[in-house]
């Protein structure tokens, strides 16, 4: 359910970032002084494959308007199959949030390497625009 947005509304977005690739990409974006949307809260995880569908759902239930899972490119996972597990978890979470009435577009899975600071920043900016266009999820945290 989407509720009318107050004029000062800013989206609450959570980005689960793989320590080895996406988080390092965020660091590279910072080193290169590439600015990106500030609405995103980065959560560093050792592997995107460890972000279960339950964790994704918990983020939405805790007040996130959008959730991102950012990890290593297929074939480059430091834990061999972690990103393949992430694909399964995100697909499962998309089905569950769709059943709950939340647009699946509010959940993004993206592969970003440590050398792709510009891609990291662009992904953050594009996803933030998408969430702004979708609007705020309804209800108070804990009531969804």
Helices and strands in order, then pairings?
Layout: E1 13-18, H1 22-31, E2 40-45, H2 53-61, E3 66-71, H3 82-99, E4 107-111, H4 117-134
Parallel strand pairs: 1-2, 1-3, 3-4
Helix pairs in contact: 1-4, 2-3
Fraction of helical residues? 25-40%
Proportion in β-strands? 15-25%
Strand order of the largest sheet: 2-1-3-4
- How many β strands by DSSP? 4
Number of domains: 1
Order of helices and strands: EHEHEHEH
Q: Which descriptor suits the 3D outline?
A: flat
Instruction: Give the biggest sheet.
Output: 4 strands, parallel
**Averaging pLDDT over every residue, what do you get?**
92
Describe this structure in words.
The structure is a single chain. The chain is of the alpha/beta class and 144 residues long. The protein has one domain (28-134). It contains 4 helices and 4 strands, in the order E-H-E-H-E-H-E-H. The chain has a 4-stranded parallel β-sheet with strand order 2-1-3-4, sandwiched between helices. Strand 3, helix 3 and strand 4 form a beta-alpha-beta unit. Helix 1 crosses helix 4 (117-134) and helix 2 (53-61) crosses helix 3 (82-99). The radius of gyration is 15 Å and the shape is flat.
Looking at this protein, list some descriptive labels.
144 residues, alpha/beta, four-stranded parallel sheet, 4 helices, disordered C terminus
